[in-house]
Amino acid sequence: MDTFIQHGDVSTLEHSVSVAFVSLWLSEKLNWHVDRSSLVRGALLHDFFLYDWHVGNGQKGLHGFTHPRTALENAEARFQLTERERNIILRHMWPLTPIPPKYREAYLVSVADKYCSLVETLRKHTVYQYKKSE
Ligand SMILES: [Fe+2]
Ligand SMILES: [Fe+2]
Questions:
Q1: Which residue ranges form the domains of the chain, and what is each CATH number?
Q2: Assuming Cys at both sites, which of 1, 6, 49, 128 could form a disulfide with 70, CB separation 3.0 to 4.6 Å?
Q3: What is the whole-number distance in angstroms between the Cα of residue 30 and the centre of ligand 1?
Q4: C-alpha 46 to ligand 1 mean position (Å)
C-alpha cells in the first residue's frame, strides 16, 4: 500500500492510517460507543485494492465504484474479518455508491475518508503524520 499514491504525494498506506486516526478521533468527539478494533482494522483496509488507481488495474468499471469490492476481496483473502469490518470496507464510498453503511463504524470511516481525501488533494500531505519503521 505504501508503493501506490492515493492523493497528491500521499501513499495509500499513509492515507489509510490517517483515516483510521480521524475515525477514532471522531468517535471520541461524538462520544459514540464503537467497536474500536473493527473501526481501526476496517479503516486500515478500506482501500486495500493494491494497484495504482491513476493507471487502473484492467478491470471494467470506474475505480470509485469498484475498488471497495476489490479491497474487500483482498482483505478477505488475507485476514479474518468481522461483519463490521466487511461493511466498513464495502460501504466506505457511500453516497457515491448507493447502498448506505449498516454500522456507525462504517459511517465514521466514510466521513473520515472524505475529509482525509480532501485535505490530501488540496494540501498534498497527510492529516496524521506517523513514523514509518524500516
Ligand atoms: Fe476508497
Ligand atoms: Fe480512502
A1: 5-54+61-123 (1.10.3210.10)
A2: 49
A3: 23
A4: 6
Amino acid at 15: H
Task: Measure the CA angle with vertex 63, ends 80 and 82; round to 5°.
Answer: 15
**Cell 448506505, residue located:** 100
Mean pLDDT in consecutive groups of 10 residues from the start of the chain, 134 residues: 88 96 97 98 97 78 93 98 98 96 98 96 78 63
Q: What angle do CA 128, 133, 134 make, to 5 degrees?
A: 135
Using the mean position of ligand 2's atoms as its centre, give its distance from the Cα of residue 92 in Å.
Answer: 8
* Closest-approaching ligand to the CA atom of 12: 2
